[in-house]
């Protein structure tokens, strides 16, 4: 979350990766290009990564991709990645690796319904810690004396990472509260002061989740003057899932460890109709990368029916994170208008193509 810098250009690394990423990322690029003078002149730098790249050249995340992102780009967009469900020697997820290389410690996923459309009123943001938990990927399998096997995974939670993600969640709650209080702000469904919900399972995992919970509360307690207008509560992760589906309107900003954040943000997408609608950014203190929440969807690859909205909204979220909030708002208003119009891809029950939905958004823009 930054103030817009006085740039003459905006260099964005484009990593379509696998599957429908190669279809939805170009749609996001078209929308960014259509913003004209609302943002600095964009320059798009194509970069390689993914399962297909691994099969071609033996490395899922080329060193050159990392170098270009670090040395030449202001931000990046990532499409989608196909990862095998079984262990493949030498392969590891490039998106997980990118988060580590660029210190993108937060995955921020807004889940918001569109006024005037069927379904519950939803306006939550899930802030997911992005660097540790079970995603440190320290696993082993051992043979037991009786001939059976045991698989063991190490879970890592640190106070440093937990406090850092909690601080971002509280700052985001403040920002959302200020935006809602601005005259003429669009309807967001949320009533009342900003709120942060700490999601954990410390009643069972008292050590690891206990540390996450304590660290998040420490951030609030040590900054009470700054966060005095923010309400704080907690939810066990299973209770959160239940209440999110029963009464999603009670949640504003929700902060969770990596695995829980991954699961609940994908699940929450069902509240607004489709993973194809939900954006995210992977953010750190010095870099931000937009990433639609959906996967690579190999079953529909190449059919021109993938929903481009998650990718386009991710581009808007990226621009907002860089400080170009007016440009981001223009994109989101155009997307909302198209959703209300009924122009939709098959995942939403529509019959329109990726190209047709993108063209409709551009027309509204």
Automatic annotation (TrEMBL):
Molecular function via GO: homoisocitrate dehydrogenase activity; isocitrate dehydrogenase (NAD+) activity; magnesium ion binding; NAD binding
Any single Pfam family the record assigns to this protein: Iso_dh
GO cellular component: mitochondrion
InterPro entries (UniProt xref): IsoCit/isopropylmalate_DH_CS (IPR019818), IsoPropMal-DH-like_dom (IPR024084)
Domain named Isopropylmalate dehydrogenase-like: residues: 11-361
KW Metal-binding (keyword) present: no
Protein name: Isopropylmalate dehydrogenase-like domain-containing protein
Source organism: Vanrija humicola
Higher taxonomy: Eukaryota, Fungi, Dikarya, Basidiomycota, Agaricomycotina
């Amino acid at each position: 979350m930054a103030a817009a810098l006085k740039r003459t250009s905006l260099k964005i690394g484009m990593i379509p990766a696998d599957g429908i990423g190669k279809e939805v990322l170009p749609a996001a690029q078209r929308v960014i290009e259509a913003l004209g003078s609302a943002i600095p002149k964009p320059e798009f730098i194509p970069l390689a990564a993914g399962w297909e790249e691994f099969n071609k050249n033996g490395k899922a995340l080329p060193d050159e991709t990392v170098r270009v992102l670090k040395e030449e780009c202001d931000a990046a967009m990532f499409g989608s990645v196909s990862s095998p469900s079984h262990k493949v020697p030498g392969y590891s997820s490039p998106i997980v690796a990118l988060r580590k290389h660029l210190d993108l410690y937060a995955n921020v996923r807004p889940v918001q319904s569109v006024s005037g459309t069927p379904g519950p009123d939803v306006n939550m943001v899930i802030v997911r810690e992005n660097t540790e938990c079970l995603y440190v990927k320290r696993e082993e399998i051992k043979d037991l004396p009786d001939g059976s096997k045991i698989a063991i995974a190490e879970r890592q939670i640190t106070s440093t990472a937990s406090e850092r993600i909690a601080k971002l969640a509280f700052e985001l709650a403040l920002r959302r509260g200020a935006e809602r209080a601005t005259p003429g702000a669009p309807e967001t469904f949320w009533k009342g002061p900003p709120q942060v919900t700490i999601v954990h399972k410390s009643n069972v995992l008292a050590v690891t989740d206990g540390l996450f919970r304590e660290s998040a509360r420490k951030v609030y307690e040590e900054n009470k003057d700054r966060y005095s207008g923010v309400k704080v509560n907690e939810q066990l992760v299973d209770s959160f899932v239940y209440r999110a589906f029963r009464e999603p309107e009670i949640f504003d900003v929700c902060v969770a460890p990596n695995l829980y954040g991954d699961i609940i943000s994908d699940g929450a997408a069902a509240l607004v109709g489709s993973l194809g609608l939900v954006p995210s950014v992977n953010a750190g203190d010095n870099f931000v990368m937009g990433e639609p929440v959906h996967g690579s969807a190999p079953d529909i690859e190449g059919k021109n029916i993938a929903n481009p909205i998650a990718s386009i909204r991710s581009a808007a979220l990226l621009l907002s994170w860089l400080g170009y909030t007016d440009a981001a708002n223009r994109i989101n208003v155009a997307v909302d208008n198209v959703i209300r119009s009924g122009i939709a891809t098959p995942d939403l029950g529509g019959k329109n193509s990726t190209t047709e939905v993108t063209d409709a958004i551009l027309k509204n823009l």
